[in-house]
Amino acid sequence: MSPTKPCIPIPPPLMMSEEGSFAHQTLTQRWVTIIERAIASNNYPASITQNLENLRQELPYGIVRSLEDETQPDLEAWNTYMSPYQGKRWIDIPWYPAEVYLYRRILEATHYFQPGKWHRVDPFEPQKHSSLAKVMSAIETMSGKINTFVDAQGKWNRIDLIALFYFALWGNRIDLSLFPTDAGESQRMNIEAYREQANLLVDHTPQIADHIAHLKGVRIDLIVDNAGFELFCDLCVADFFVNSGIAQPVYLHLKPHPVLVSDAMIKDVDHTINVLCHHSHQDVQSLGKRLKNHIDNGNIICCEDSYWTAPLAFWDMPESWRSELNQSQLVMIKGDANYRRLLGDRQWDYTTPWEDIVCYFPAPFAALRTFKAEVAAGLKPAQIKRLNQDDPQWLTNGQWGVIQFFNPRQ
């Protein structure tokens, strides 16, 4: 029987009380900016603006309170999640549960679940749409390449597959919780840079390609991270798997409501494909229409579940989700937040063997992550020493990445 926890002792969680840490900076600076940006980018009435201001003023030393609107669908679940932290200050609770709960409190403040004008209105949607619009030149270039990766007979080559994984990894550099929409994304979208390996600290793409080479007509799952350019890259990966006949179907696992500013929901997929289908560039249009057909034909299935917005480590996933993912022949886990959940957002030594932590996962998986938090595993001591000297912010600036693979069935 496969393990359901890491195979080694689990260290303490990352805490926001550690001064000088990125978690502490997030609590004292980044979250304040995120709330202010949500106010600035939406035409909220005074009552909602005041709700958000009240939330902002709780940080970092206010007491964490429960959700107050009893009509909210996940009230009972969140009461359970946050019960260990009742009566504690924001600064005194672990980073990941606090972070996810902050965004849930933003939805409460903006009346996201209440009937009326603001029902199901994404407070981060203007930022998501602006971010996508700013990278259309990169999308044009990439669409032309993607349209050639699989020929009419469904043939493909290993080099293009590996390049596609690099595209999908570095698309995660754009994260609206770190970079606002006016931060010059287009300047970072040199398409050839996505084949660059210099900043890739672990590269298991050969093992992933070997695994995929034997697959035909199987189920593949993508646990999606950000909307915008990263979601476009993920859709390109799904398109490749379907066109090549490797996958039938591809499941896209998306968030059921807004969280972490730029995390993707089903409506973000719909918006992205609609933008592609109505773009003036022929290659972009062709890709968009193909993606729409994949969804209409059931070859790409978009689904959502509250588990993806829960403050739980992946080793705490419900048995129903272990059984679900066990049906997959490959799970692609995208982005920094999902990587943090893989490692439980814990204080692992960065050289801890990767497989000793993730041995619990129920299916073969690839984690594609650019570093935006002080959590890592599977690195070499010499790498860490060099990075600490050359780029002291390497763990959090989004410029370094890993592609790590593990197959529990081998």
Please sum up the structure shown.
Keywords: Hydrolase, Manganese, Metal-binding. With 410 residues, the chain is α/β, with parallel strands linked by helices.
CATH class of the largest domain: Alpha Beta
Mean of the pLDDT scores? 93
C-alpha Rg (nearest Å): 21 Å
The H-and-E topology, N to C, reads as: HHHHHHHEHEHEHHEHEHHEHE
Please work out how many helical segments DSSP would assign: 15
> What oligomeric state is this?
single chain
Overall 3D shape: globular
Distance from N terminus to C terminus (CA atoms, Å) equals 13 Å
| CATH topology (fold) name of the largest domain | Rossmann fold
Please indicate the count of domains.
2
3D architecture notes:
It contains 15 helices and seven strands. By secondary structure, the protein is of the alpha/beta class. It has two domains: 22-109, Transcription Elongation Factor S-II, Chain A, CATH 1.20.930.60; 125-406, Uncharacterised protein PF01937, DUF89, domain 3 (Rossmann fold, 3-Layer(aba) Sandwich), CATH 3.40.50. A seven-stranded mixed β-sheet has the order 1-7-6-5-2-3-4, with helices on both faces. Helix 1 packs parallel to helix 4, helix 7 packs antiparallel against helix 9 (229-243) and helix 9 packs across helix 11. Residues 175-195 have low confidence and may be disordered.
SSE blueprint and pairings:
Layout: H1 22-40, H2 46-58, H3 75-82, H4 95-109, H5 125-134, H6 136-146, H7 158-170, E1 200-203, H8 205-213, E2 218-223, H9 229-243, E3 247-254, H10 266-277, H11 282-296, E4 300-304, H12 319-325, E5 330-334, H13 336-342, H14 354-358, E6 365-370, H15 381-390, E7 401-406
Parallel strand pairs: 1-7, 2-3, 2-5, 3-4, 5-6
Antiparallel strand pairs: 6-7
